[in-house]
Amino acid sequence: MRINCPICGDRDRREYYYQGAAVTLDRPAPDAEEAVWEDYLHLRENPAGRTRDLWHHEGGCGAWVVVTRDTVSHKIFEVALAADVKGAAR
Amino acid sequence: MGELQAARPWAERLDVSIGRSALVEVDLGHLTVLAPFGAEAGMTEALSAAHGLGFPKPNRATGKDGGRCIWFGRGEALLIGPAPDASLADHGASVDVLDAWAAVSLSGAAAVDVLARLVPVDLREGAFKRGHSIRTQVMHMSASITRTGKDSFLILVFRSMAGTLSHDLKQAMAAVAARG
Predict the structure, then answer these.
(1) Shortest distance, CA B92 to any CA of chain A (angstroms)
(2) Which of A61, A81, A84 best tests the B interface by mutation, with the highest count of B CBs <10 A?
(3) Which CATH number fits domain B15-27+99-178: 3.40.50.2300, 2.40.10.240, 3.30.1360.120, 3.40.50.150?
(4) What is the interface pTM, i.e. ipTM, of the complex?
(5) Using one digit for the tens of pLDDT, what is the confidence trace for A27-82?
(6) Do A3 and A67 form a contact (C-beta atoms < 8 A)?
(7) Domain locations in chain B?
C-alpha cells in the first residue's frame, strides 16, 4: 500500500501511522447533547467500501492527511492535508 | 555559561569501507532548525542576505558542503554549517539542534544499493538527484537523506539512534558486498 503525501509524494505505508476515521475533524460543539458526544467518541462506521481516515506521515514531513480509500478494493481515491480539509470546513 | 565541550555521537570515530561503499561520520558545524512564522518570504530573504542560501522547497536542498539548507519537514528547514545570523529569528523560530542529530556520509558506487535495503524510497539517480533531500525512515528510524554528489548521501538520524544507524548501515554494506 502506498499513500501519495501532498507534500512528500508517493510513499510506502510504513512511513505512516494510522489514526482512524476522519470524524475527529468534525468535533461537536462543547454544549452538544450527550448522545452526540457519545456518537463522536465511541461509534464508528465499519464500511465495506469507501471510507475516510486520518493518517500521520510520521516517517516523513509530519503532516496529518485525510485518505479517502476503498476497504474492499484498497483503491485510494484522494489524499489531502488535514489542515486544508479543516480550513475549508471553517 | 562555561565553555562547553561538544561530544561526538560515536565513542570511536566512525570510518569504514566495505566493498564499494564507505561510511564516515561528519561534523557539520552548526545545525539550526528554521521554521518560518506563516509566509516563507521573509525567511527566504533573510537567509539569502545573511548566508547566500535559498530557503528550500519540499524535498529539496540548497547550498553545498560548508553551507547548506535542507528541507526538514512541513514548514521547516535545517541550516547546516554556519552559525545562524540573528536576523533569521525575526522571521521564524531559529532553534539550535546540534546536540539532537547524528550525521554520516555514505558514498561509493554501491551506496545506493546499501540504502535500498534500508529505506522505503527510490534513491536511484533517476528519481533522487543531487540537491534532493527527503524526510523518510532508515529501517525504523526517522531520518533525513540528502544526495550530496553522484554517489554520496548525507544521512541524519536522532543522535540517540547513532549506534543503531551505524550498525544497520554496516550490516547492509556487508550484505551488498557479499553479493559481489
Answers:
(1) 18
(2) A61
(3) 3.30.1360.120
(4) 0.88
(5) 999 999 999 999 999 999 999 999 999 999 999 999 999 999 999 999 999 999 99
(6) yes
(7) 15-27+99-178, 30-98
